[in-house]
Each structure stands twice: as C-alpha cells, then as structure tokens.
Amino acid sequence: KVMTRDYMLVAKAAGIEVDASVVDDLSKLHIELARLRSFWWVAAISLGCLLGYGWSLHAKITMAVPLVLQFFIGFMITGVFNMCMTLLVDVHPLAPATSQASLNIVRCSLAAGGIAVLQILIDAVGVGWCFTVVTVICLSTIPLVWAEIKWGPKWRESRATVEQKHSDDSQSPVMADKTIYKTTEPLHRESRLHTEKS
Predict the structure, then answer these.
(1) Residue 186's pLDDT is what?
(2) What parts of the chain have a pLDDT lower than 70?
(3) Minimal CB count within 10 Å: which of 84, 122, 152, 172?
(4) Residue 122: what pLDDT?
(5) DSSP structure string for 76-112
(6) Could you tell me the sign of the dihedral formed by the alpha carbons of 88, 4, 7, 75, in that order?
(7) Distance between CA 128 and CA 91 in Å, rounded?
(8) Buried residues in 159-185 as b, exposed as e (16+ CB within 10 A)
(9) Residue 108 burial (CB < 10 Å; 0-12/13-18/19+)?
(10) Relative orientation angle of helices 127-140 and 96-125, to the nearest 10 degrees
(11) Comparing C-alpha atoms, which of 59, 96, 90, 64 is closest to residue 153?
C-alpha cells in the first residue's frame, strides 16, 4: 500500500492519470522516485532498530527487547527489498527474471560474507560495537539510493537508447543477409565439393 500510494503521488505530480488497465509510460514518470520515495524513513527505522538490537544484547537485558527489535528489523528490511525488486523490474521490463536473479545472487553473497565475519567481529569488539559497525556500513550505502533517484532517469534513458539501437541493428536487412550468408555458406561449400567428386 505504501508503494502504491507513493506511485500515485508521483504520477499525480507529473500530471499522469493512472489507469490500472493500461501500462504507464515510464519515460514520462520518475519511477525511481516513485519506488524509493519512502525508503528514507523505512531505512531509518530499520537501522535504528539494528543499532538498538546490538546494544540491547550487549547490555544483557530481558530478551523481549531484542526480539521486538528483531521483528521491526525484519519487517522494515523486507520493505526495502520489495522497493528494490520492484524498481529492478520497472527498469528492466524485458528481463525481469534476470534482474531478480542478479539481485538475489548479490544479496545472498553479501549475506554469506557478512555471516562469515560476524562472529569474528563480535569476538574482537563486542556485540554492541559489532552492530554499530554494521549500521555504519549500511549508512555508507545510502548515498547510492540518492544517486539512483537523482540520475536514474538519465541512466534509464541512455540504456533504452542503446537497447533500441541494438534492436534496430539486429533487425536490419543488411544484418539479416549477413546472418543468412554465414549460415548457408558451409552448405554451399559442401554442395560444391559433392558435385566435384561426382
């Protein structure tokens, strides 16, 4: 519902009337802003809970506190994942499965690497400072979201131009003739050899 509301607000600001039965023209819509509009407060709550989770474990208080914080961390991070996945599909409409698979590979690889060093970091600096370091690392990636919102439309337009050019080249008669020639040339050679032998 949050993403739908953000989409409607951005579309309305751009003067676009949203119709569920018609695919919207994303070239006229700032889809990066529409998908990431609520990222800031979702990330803030998630990172705040992550920091509190680490220090609540460090203080060894009742387990109710870290468990509640863990719930909010998971809930908010799931929201961030949904925003990113939806945006990926929006900007790669011709290869949605590939974009999702790429995201999962990167996400799972980073998670595996993080788990591998987590206990080492806890043993070195303590659980509180360990999650502080994790929070700082997450904070350091936030400028990438700002860059995507600011320059995303320009990157998307450039990519669409390149894809259109490749599509036009692959469908041109000259390229088609070359492809047919390369495909049939061995057949003609075999035919000539067979004629000479006979």
Answers:
(1) 42
(2) 20-25, 169-198
(3) 172
(4) 93
(5) HHHHHHHHHHHHHHHH-TT-HHHHHHHHHHHHHHHHH
(6) negative
(7) 39
(8) eeeeeeeeeeeeeeeeeeeeeeeeeee
(9) exposed
(10) 150
(11) 90
Tally: H helices and E strands in the chain: 8, 0
| Spatial distance between the Cα atoms of 168 and 175, rounded to a whole number of angstroms | 10
Cβ within 8 Å of residue 170, ≥6 positions away: none
Q: Map tokens 């993403």 to a residue.
A: 3
With contact defined as beta carbons under 8 Å apart, do 69 and 53 qualify?
yes
Q: What is the DSSP letter of 57?
A: H
pLDDT of residue 20: 67
Amino acid at 20: A
For 136-182, give the DSSP string.
Answer: HHHHHTHHHHHHHHHHHHHHHHHHHHHHHHHHHHHHSHHHHHHHHHH
**How many angstroms separate the CA atoms of 133 and 46, rounded?**
15
Phi, psi of 39 (to 5 degrees): -60, -40
